Amino acid sequence: MISPGELIQLVSPQGKKYLRILEPDKELHTHDGKINMSDIVGLDYGSSVKTHLGRKYTVFLPTLYDLIKNIKRKTQIIYPKDIGYILIRLGIGPGKRVVEAGCGSGGLTLALSYMVGEEGRVYAFDRREEFVKLCEKNLTKVGLNHRVELCVKDIANGFDVEDMDCGFLDVRTPWDYLTPLSKAVKNGSMVGFILPTTNQVSRLLEALEQFSYTDIDVVEIMLRRYKPVYERLRPDDRMVAHTGFLVFARVRIY
Amino acid sequence: MISPGELIQLVSPQGKKYLRILEPDKELHTHDGKINMSDIVGLDYGSSVKTHLGRKYTVFLPTLYDLIKNIKRKTQIIYPKDIGYILIRLGIGPGKRVVEAGCGSGGLTLALSYMVGEEGRVYAFDRREEFVKLCEKNLTKVGLNHRVELCVKDIANGFDVEDMDCGFLDVRTPWDYLTPLSKAVKNGSMVGFILPTTNQVSRLLEALEQFSYTDIDVVEIMLRRYKPVYERLRPDDRMVAHTGFLVFARVRIY
Amino acid sequence: MISPGELIQLVSPQGKKYLRILEPDKELHTHDGKINMSDIVGLDYGSSVKTHLGRKYTVFLPTLYDLIKNIKRKTQIIYPKDIGYILIRLGIGPGKRVVEAGCGSGGLTLALSYMVGEEGRVYAFDRREEFVKLCEKNLTKVGLNHRVELCVKDIANGFDVEDMDCGFLDVRTPWDYLTPLSKAVKNGSMVGFILPTTNQVSRLLEALEQFSYTDIDVVEIMLRRYKPVYERLRPDDRMVAHTGFLVFARVRIY
Amino acid sequence: MISPGELIQLVSPQGKKYLRILEPDKELHTHDGKINMSDIVGLDYGSSVKTHLGRKYTVFLPTLYDLIKNIKRKTQIIYPKDIGYILIRLGIGPGKRVVEAGCGSGGLTLALSYMVGEEGRVYAFDRREEFVKLCEKNLTKVGLNHRVELCVKDIANGFDVEDMDCGFLDVRTPWDYLTPLSKAVKNGSMVGFILPTTNQVSRLLEALEQFSYTDIDVVEIMLRRYKPVYERLRPDDRMVAHTGFLVFARVRIY
What percentage of chain C carries pLDDT values higher than 90? Predict the structure, then answer.
């Protein structure tokens, strides 16, 4: 039974999605008419409510995917297709301690904090205060902020954390931070990077070899969506062709 | 400091990887010579050991990616690129309870049990006994078997579980099990499927519409790997072009 | 030296392209100002002209690619990436005789007639008169109409041509026309098809096997464009994900 | 009716292809047994012949695609997917005069000479004598050598041709030849390049801007093949992920 204060996702007949905290005294205004949020209290997930124009909206518990997609953003966020792969490559899971620099709007931060659970910890930095604030807001909305140490920080001066299980950098010049990064994580740890251009990837690869990194991998993840129509199955006409190159490497003791 | 009994990954100078439980009285035989496993005890991750021919191998803590890649398999396993996306779409995380049918060699089972943590639970079925045994063996090796209820079961007769947070089917005719699946998971839950052919996707889409499923999505994830050479950066010559179509849907109350 | 009546392509400083027949008494109105077309007469290709606001436009001889991209269309046209591959698979070249059904706006017809030269011949059909007229207009503009026999025709009643070197169908139900198609082309000829959905491809494959076709191939061509910026080289953010599946087969004598 | 001396393609029941000049006194040895080539004389294309073990092989007229695929090669050849797009971008067609440097084994040379017809001309260079000889042999086999001026030449010393309609370079350092290239082709002409690495593309882009080139485009063509089985339609498991980046540009008068 859905209670006030819960995070819910409403889906319109056309598939449009609304992520909201259930506040019974509020209304949701849609193209299909108004929904009294109080009508949702006490329903089961998977149920429908009607707008004042009689259109049916279905209520669901949002999954991690929905939470990431609904992040309020001022920057390009990292896409779920990339986040899923990052989680697996870095070995994120319950109890892990992760450091992330360049958290931006906090899409990856949200996923990391979701996956590390109550025993884990995420240390998320950005040198731009507005992004740290936005990230905080996004995490608070979904109730994950207590798992994250958010901080305005220029990592050029060090990460000020140590013994992290892994690390991730979403910054423009990651090659400038390879030594502080290697000190922030445990020896032998996996670290990851996302970069938009091939020039940046080349420059990072050169630096990774110079510093004590090994087991280096560069990949791109592409997602192709299909129109879910059984008698006319076909890929969508257009797709996101590029989000970023993912680079992974391990810190070696030399 | 690495102790006996730990799961370690050894990486050769050419990047070949060996996942082993550290048994100090054993040797690892490689193309570069023998390694005394006792030499590894007490080292820090990220350190190197030498083969009897003097070649340096580096020791790392395996990440989830390494564990999945090292699964002993008798079937096509689900790839990390797909698993990562499945985790996010289904909202897998600490404490979740998941049902999986068609666990095969257990690649996805391993990832699910890793992510749900000690508070979560995975119910994994296969109707072929040999796969349940193989899956068990693979989970035991990495110490995750206690989080999984493994069972030889034909789901045509029902799943015998309920209130699951989500479900995943890797079976040839998923359209045959949509009603029992919807009873195994909580109302409104997200379920996922992987299917190799477009004919199967069409048939599943038709069935999902007939039964009480909604919010349907069909995607493909492609991974393109690059040669990590900074002055000659280029995609690999060949890639895996197809593993499977991923289908996601939610159970609606109607 | 460029003369009146020639087909020219003007490219703006931002890369916007205009394909025009050079009529000296006309003006080209652009976002950068007006260009007197008479200023272009007598110039060499590769030269620039200025708009009345002083912006430089460069004049080029259009290539086949430019001609295809500038087709006036009422339907989805076949893309250059697909046309190039079709030409090679069908063995189109000087002197070939080709039949095409479902010519639509005439993008492929234009390319076929360009490639078969003065000795070749294209027989292009569509059952919708408006498209035959549009196709004719598009071919006339680029001076290739005399190489094409255009006809409003429903191929269900036969193609009324024979001994074609190859054939191509861009129609919704190509499986209905396999027998007439095999009579229109020489024995052993290669024929091609373009289809948007997997369901259509499956149905065509089934029919091709039943009729006397062999050496069957199904492919998709994807084109990924890069931002041509040397110090920030990266794929475009978005791309066309799907135009159609290409199917090729040969007519066997049985 | 097939005559001696013709170029034919035999296709096995499993789809294996053999391209041969029909020499009636010869035999073709296959895994399915021997075929007397004299049995093929007088047949129609699309007919079958039997091996001495009774297996049916079908005889076809090879298309341009088959000719390219059967090139004897000592280097990576340019793939049909790329060649088709190159033809369209460069505007190759009957009567065109094209210059190509780095012809290698001659795959593109073959396609160019096929398409320019008897009135056109291809000037193909390579600085390595063995490749010029191989290219010659490959062209002679398919009867196209008389349309091509083949030459061992280091283009650093100039192309020694002028007024070409377009040009293509498949060389390691194309940026070294941009001035001689611009002198070999007509003003305003389209030129193309193929390069395997992103570093080369960046360097070429930088040089194209410095020299008098404009209208620059960088693309990649990917081909995904499907298993042509109507009730189990699916992409092939593996694909060629990378052949080369294609760069196109036009010569501007400045």
Answer: 95
Q: Is B173 on the interface with C (CB under 8 A)?
A: no
Q: Are D241 and B235 within 8 A, CB to CB?
A: yes
Examine the pLDDT at D81 and tell me if it is beyond 80.
yes
Residues B34/B38/B42/B47 CA torsion (nearest 10 deg):
0
Positive or negative CA dihedral for B141, B144, B147, B153?
negative
Chains with ≥3 CB–CB distances under 8 Å to D: A, B, C
pLDDT value, residue C58:
96
Which of D197, D229, D243 best probes binding to B when mutated, by most B CB atoms within 10 angstroms?
D197
Query: Which pLDDT score is estimated for D157?
Result: 85
**pLDDT band, very low/low/confident/very high, at A77 (cuts 50, 70, 90):** confident
- pLDDT category at D58 given cuts 50, 70, 90 is very high
Judged by a CB distance cut-off of 8 A, whether residue A19 touches chain B is no
Encode C112-127: b = buried (16+ Cβ within 10 Å), e = exposed: bbbbbbeebbbbbbbb
Complex ipTM tops 0.90: yes
How far is residue A189 from each of residues A91, B64, B91, B113, B117, measured CA to CA in Å?
A: 10, 13, 26, 22, 21
How many interchain CB pairs under 8 A, B with C? Answer: 9
Which segments within chain A are labelled E, that is strand?
A: 7-11, 17-21, 27-30, 33-36, 48-50, 56-60, 97-101, 121-126, 148-152, 164-169, 185-195, 213-227, 234-235, 238-240, 245-251
A7-60 and A65-251 share one fold: no
Q: Does A198 touch chain D (CB under 8 A)?
A: yes
Of A224, A234, A242, the CB nearest to C196: A234
Chain D contact for B31 (CB, 8 A cutoff): no
User: Do the strands B245-251 and B213-227 form a parallel or antiparallel pair, or are they unpaired?
Assistant: antiparallel
Cα distance between residue A107 and residue A127, in whole Å: 17
* pLDDT tens-place string over residues C100-138: 999 999 999 999 999 999 999 999 999 999 999 999 999
Kindly report the number of other CB atoms within 10 A of residue C190's CB atom. 27
Smallest Cα distance from D128 to chain C, Å: 28
Contact D9, D61 (CB under 8 A): yes
Mean pLDDT, residues B156-163 taken together = 93
Distance to chain C for B199, nearest Cα, Å: 8
D65-251: CATH homologous superfamily? Answer: Vaccinia Virus protein VP39 (3.40.50.150)
The verdict on B173 touching D (C-beta cutoff 8 Å) is no
Q: What's the rounded Cα separation, in Å, for the pair A80 and A57?
A: 25
Place of tokens 């009603």: B179
Find where tokens 């799961």 sit: B7
Q: What's the confidence (pLDDT) of residue D183?
A: 94
Whole-number Å distance between alpha carbons of D101 and D194: 11
The sign of the torsion formed by the CA atoms of C63, C66, C72, C74 equals positive
Measured over the CA atoms of residue C234, residue C240, residue C245 and residue C246, the dihedral's sign is: negative
D210–chain A Cβ distance below 8 A for any pair: no
Which residue from D99, D93, D138, D83 is spatially nearest to D120, judged by alpha carbons?
A: D93
Give me D244's structure tokens: 């080369």
Task: Report the residue from A196, A199, A239 with minimal CB separation from C241.
Answer: A239
Residue pair B85/A84 in contact by the 8 Å Cβ criterion: yes
Q: Which of A88-92, A221-225, B85-89, C155-159 has the lowest mean pLDDT?
A: C155-159
Reading the block at residue C64, the tokens are: 């086949």
* Residues C100, B234: Cα–Cα separation, whole Å: 39
Task: Give the start-to-end residue ranges of the domains of chain B.
Answer: 7-60, 65-251
- CATH assignment, A7-60: 3.10.330.20
Strands D164-169 and D185-195, bridge-based pairing: parallel
